[in-house]
């Protein structure tokens, strides 16, 4: 192989290596930048951050008084006695002391209560319309009661069980066999029942003076969706959408929203409104990233992390950080 051929081969290898370096640097940037939350940072960075925060150990501080679960009030009392000695068979007589022990126990699985309702129908003598009597414990739709619907919803959304396991839980606990398809329909009925509450929360979110907003990915039947959360001091509104863009903000908040959105640096928020307050945690991460790379940013980061820092500074921080990055 002559010299020219060797040079050409080395150049090709050099280009391949440069491309590989760019690829690896792009992947590394996903986990080492100011916008990376601590949960996704590499272990080395997380340990460094913990050490810089003061080296505090997890758990309660030394000297912290422990807490003990308070005893429950008994619903019944049971006298535990014995007539004869188990070793020699002699009569024991009266006890010389009585020990008190309170036990909390769940009841045994209860059978389903089946109720037959006789619903009266009337004809109004004045307007001749049919009037049907109602009972709060008798749902208008279906054959399962309110408690059954509530239990299915709790198992689904609080305990996050799939419909098949909800079916198994209801059989085990109550002897009630409901198909997975019917369990899905029960959650739909519950949603219909609270629709007015849902709409009222949405209306208050749209009229909030200060509204937090964030989004994160979630799998829906194996496909990537985004769960959007809009919390206020008193409530939280959540939607799951295929999009992570501005159209979700337009759908949820509409153009009439006039409040301030507290959010991260995701661009759709800035496209939706100029009334933005950058998230304090994100600003601190960005200032730390700047301090690690730019000497002029060290005083800024120290000021922000000091106990005397003024939270009002956050309104001008976005501009300051942007200037330092240039």
Overall description:
This protein has 326 residues and is of the alpha/beta class. The protein has 11 helices and 8 strands. Among the domains are: 111-194, no CATH class; 208-325, 2-Layer Sandwich (Nucleotidyltransferase, domain 5), CATH 3.30.420. The strands form 3 sheets. Strands 3-7-8 form a 3-stranded parallel β-sheet. The protein has a 3-stranded antiparallel β-sheet with strand order 4-5-6. Helix 4 (163-174) packs across helix 5 and helix 9 (280-293) runs antiparallel to helix 10. Residues 46-55, 62-82 have a biased composition (Basic and acidic residues). Residues 83-127 form the Transposase IS66 zinc-finger binding domain. Residues 142-293 form the Transposase IS66 central domain.
Radius of gyration: 32 Å
* SS field, number of helical segments: 11
Along the chain, the helix and strand elements come as HHEEHHHHEEEEHEHEHHH
Residue share in β-strands: 5-15%
Any idea what the CATH architecture of one domain is?
Answer: 2-Layer Sandwich
Q: Strand sequence of the main sheet, in spatial order?
A: 3-7-8
| CATH class division of one domain | Alpha Beta
InterPro entries: Transposase-related, Transposase_IS66_central, Znf_dom_IS66
How is this fold's topology laid out?
Blueprint lengths: L2 H27 L13 H10 L68 E3 L6 E3 L13 H13 L4 H12 L5 H14 L1 H12 L3 E3 L1 E7 L2 E9 L4 E6 L4 H8 L6 E4 L3 H6 L3 E3 L1 H14 L4 H8 L8 H12 L1
Parallel strand pairs: 3-7, 7-8
Antiparallel strand pairs: 1-2, 4-5, 5-6
């Amino acid at each position: 192989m002559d010299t020219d051929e060797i040079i050409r081969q080395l150049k090709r290898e050099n280009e391949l290596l440069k491309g590989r370096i760019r690829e690896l640097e792009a992947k590394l940037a996903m986990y080492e930048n100011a916008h990376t939350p601590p949960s996704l940072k590499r272990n080395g960075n997380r340990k460094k951050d913990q050490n810089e925060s003061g080296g505090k150990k997890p758990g309660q501080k030394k000297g912290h008084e422990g807490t003990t679960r308070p005893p429950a009030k008994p619903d019944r009392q049971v006298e535990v006695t014995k007539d004869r000695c188990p070793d020699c068979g002699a009569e024991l007589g009266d006890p010389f002391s009585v020990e008190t022990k309170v036990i909390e126990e769940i009841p045994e699985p209860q059978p389903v209560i089946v109720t037959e309702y006789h619903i009266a129908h009337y004809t109004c003598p004045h307007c001749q319309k049919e009037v049907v009597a109602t009972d709060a414990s008798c749902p208008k739709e279906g054959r399962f009661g309110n408690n059954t619907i509530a239990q299915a919803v709790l198992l689904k959304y609080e305990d996050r069980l799939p419909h098949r396991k909800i079916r198994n839980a209801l059989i085990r606990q109550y002897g009630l066999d409901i198909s997975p398809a019917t369990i899905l329909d029960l959650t739909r009925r519950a949603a219909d029942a609270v629709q007015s509450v849902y709409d009222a929360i949405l209306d208050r979110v749209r009229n909030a003076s200060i509204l937090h907003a964030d989004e994160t990915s979630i799998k829906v039947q194996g496909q990537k969706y985004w769960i959007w959360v809009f919390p206020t001091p008193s409530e939280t509104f959540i939607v799951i959408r295929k999009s992570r863009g501005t159209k979700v903000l337009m759908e949820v908040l509409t153009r009439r929203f006039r409040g301030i959105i507290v959010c991260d640096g995701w661009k759709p928020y800035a496209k939706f409104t100029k009334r933005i307050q950058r998230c304090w945690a994100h600003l601190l991460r960005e200032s730390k990233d700047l301090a690690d790379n730019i000497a002029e940013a060290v005083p800024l980061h120290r000021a922000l992390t000091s106990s005397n820092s003024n939270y009002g500074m956050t309104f001008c921080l976005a501009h300051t950080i942007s200037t330092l990055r240039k």
